[in-house]
Design goal:
The protein is an alpha+beta fold. The protein contains 14 helices and 31 strands. Strand 28 and strand 29 form a beta hairpin. Bound molecules: guanosine-5'-triphosphate. Guanosine-5'-triphosphate binds next to helix 1. It is a peripheral membrane protein.
Length: 596
């Protein structure tokens, strides 16, 4: 296809503003999916995605569209909407020349709308503002058209009004994509350069790599080369999705399509990498490549210890389709054998644990999420800590922690309570702006460690669900952080150690010692539960002793009954963990960790 007749665009929207529904309607109107085959959210393939309405993996579809007798190829690139996947979002955007900014006409702009809009503007995309769901009785298109126009410039009359549900306005929107989004430009006779914007594991075909051709051409059966690693692969198939995969005679400047090489691991085909040909390799990779970096860490343990091998296998499998997932074996006194896993963010963690339980039938407990700390010790070493148990025990010179730029959008009535919450989480207010009359955007810098710990839940409950949140990394800062240990009869219970700000060490200690006191059954002796920073005790509870004599209940002689009771007690002990001399049912640890 002549690049002049190609348009590459994406849809950016806050969750639930109707991106998938609109995409479905476009597929139907352009005729690439027949009415008969149409099923809700055609593009979201994973069950979990469909159920939770989140797009995890982006994909691309080619749709034909005619304007004034000229045929165009519209490539719609689906972007993941969530911040955890912001690197993937940014690569999808980099594959486009234009973006449809989709806003629910009953809700208005939300935090993710803004975050994605800023990303799109950084990528110099042409922005097409669109209000969706105008069929809703609660829709207020005039009000939100003004809001959108204020935000991106231009007149409220330029804001298109559509309904992805009924299809109203969608044809006009496709016309506008052709009219407004610039055609791709590239050097047709230069060495091939294609940017990978997505890489998906398919159990039948191996890894399917989605690319946007920037320069040159890729031909079937060519030997391709990944520029970040220099590794080469034979092209088994090259084609376009429409939306089912269709082999083609190659991909040229501006085109969007897929490559299949038979590799089985997405790490060999990384999002953001540049693909070139082995025969005539390009010298300069396309800009913007970085390795996905885990930001949030948590220990995952099977509740039934014998599931450990299944967990290992399951993680190995998930890793094939998720280059951002990291894990290594870990053992814990309280929880047994498990894995320390690294995630892009909290949603990523949630998705992985849910897939482990759903697809592999695993019952898991996750330790409190932690972030990466850099610890400088007094003897001049620098230690990277992703697990509180690795925190150096000697004298500490400084600790630095990751900081994020947080954007929160809230109705103005809740500004006070949101600010209070952010301050309690060591947030620094960087800016505050009104969007329209009743909504406010608050911008904070905040330690990531304060966000991974139930911040979102608190934000939602303080604003009755109205506030939305987005964040992106903005570097590191030094902070007065300490490791708090929890001790049972003087023995450290590893899964409960946490790195917290010194001001919060006491309240963490009190919370955990109280929880454990209420959950751990009494023993034959008194058991002190302490919270400590190093050797200094900061909180203390104790479990009083009982005389636990089960046999006393059997008045006298019935020996078989006595034996039965003893057997029963033994069985009960199987799920006990020993911490020093103290016997603790594993359930108590699990309940304490999950805050139940
Ligand atoms: P993600 O892709 O998961 O981020 O969400 P989304 O933006 O794709 O939202 P989705 O298309 O799943 O729509 C969210 C909800 O809004 C669904 O319940 C849709 O049925 C509904 N919806 C989408 N478009 C319209 C519309 O034009 N009118 C009405 N009334 N409802 C709509």
């Amino acid at each position: 296809t002549d690049p002049a007749q190609i348009r590459n665009f994406c849809i950016i929207a806050h969750i639930d503003h109707g991106k998938s529904t609109l995409a479905d309607r476009m597929l139907q109107i352009t005729g690439v999916v027949s009415d008969r085959d149409m099923r809700a959210q055609y593009l979201d393939r994973m069950d979990i995605e469909r159920e939770r309405g989140i797009t995890i993996k982006s994909q691309a579809v080619r749709m034909p569209w005619e304007v004034d007798g000229t045929g165009y190829a519209l490539n719609m690139i689906d972007t993941p909407g969530h911040v955890d996947f912001s690197y993937e979002v940014s690569r999808s955007l980099a594959a486009c020349e234009g973006a449809i900014l989709l806003v629910d006409a009953a809700q208005g702009i939300e935090a993710q709308t803004l975050a994605n809009l800023y990303l799109a503007m950084e990528n110099d995309l042409e922005i097409i503002p669109v209000l969706n769901k105008i069929d809703l009785p609660a829709a207020d298109p005039d009000k939100y058209a003004r809001e959108l126009a204020d935000l991106i410039g231009g007149s409220p009359d330029d804001v298109l009004k559509v309904s992805g549900k009924t299809g109203v306005g969608v044809e006009e929107l496709l016309d506008r994509v052709v009219g407004r989004v610039p055609a791709p430009v590239g050097r047709a006779d230069a060495p091939a350069r294609a940017m990978i914007f997505d890489s998906v594991y398919d159990s039948y075909r191996g890894v399917v790599t989605y690319v946007r051709m920037v320069d040159g051409k890729l031909n079937p059966r060519e030997r391709i080369q990944m520029m970040s690693t220099g590794s080469t692969h034979e092209l088994l198939e090259i084609g376009v999705s429409s939306p089912e995969p269709k082999p083609s005679k190659g991909l040229a400047v501006g085109e969007v399509g897929y490559l299949i090489t038979g590799v089985k691991d997405v790490r060999l085909s990384k999002v953001g990498d540049t693909v070139t040909t082995h025969r005539q390799a390009a010298t300069e990779p396309l800009p913007g490549y970085t390795d996905p970096k885990p930001m949030v860490f948590s220990g995952l343990y099977p509740i039934d210890g014998s599931d450990y091998p299944i967990l290992r296998e399951a993680l190995d499998k998930l890793k094939l389709s998720d280059a951002a997932l990291n894990y290594e074996p870990e053992t814990s006194v309280a929880l047994g054998f498990g894995f320390r896993c690294g995630f892009l963010g909290l949603l990523h963690l949630e998705i992985i644990t849910e897939r482990l339980s759903r697809e592999f039938g695993l019952d898991l407990i996750a330790t409190a999420p932690s972030v990466t700390y850099e610890v400088a010790t007094d003897d001049g070493r620098s230690v990277t800590v992703t697990n509180p148990s690795e925190f150096p025990s000697g004298k500490i010179r400084a600790v630095s922690e990751p900081v994020v730029r947080v954007g929160i959008l809230t109705p103005k009535d809740y500004v006070g309570t949101v600010m209070e919450l952010c301050q309690s989480r060591r947030g620094n207010l960087m800016g505050m702006e009104y969007l329209g009359e009743d909504r406010v955007e608050l911008r904070y810098s905040m330690p990531l460690g304060e966000i991974v710990f139930d911040f979102f839940d608190h934000l939602k409950s303080r604003t009755q669900g109205y506030a939305s949140l987005d964040y992106e990394p903005m570097g590191e800062q030094e902070a007065d952080l300490v490791k708090v240990d929890i001790l049972l009869q003087g023995e450290q219970v590893d899964a409960f150690s946490a790195i917290v700000h010194r001001d919060k060490a006491y309240s963490y200690g009190v919370l955990m010692t109280e929880r454990l006191k209420n959950l751990i059954p009494r023993q034959q002796f008194e058991v002190p539960i302490q919270a400590a920073i190093g050797s200094r005790i900061i909180a203390r509870e104790s479990i009083r002793a009982i005389r636990k004599d089960v046999l006393a209940k059997c008045y006298g002689g019935d020996i078989s009954r006595k034996r039965k009771l003893l057997e029963k007690q033994k069985e009960g002990k199987k799920r006990m963990k020993m911490v020093g001399r103290v016997e603790v049912p594993q359930e108590a640890f699990i309940a304490a960790l999950s805050g139940e």
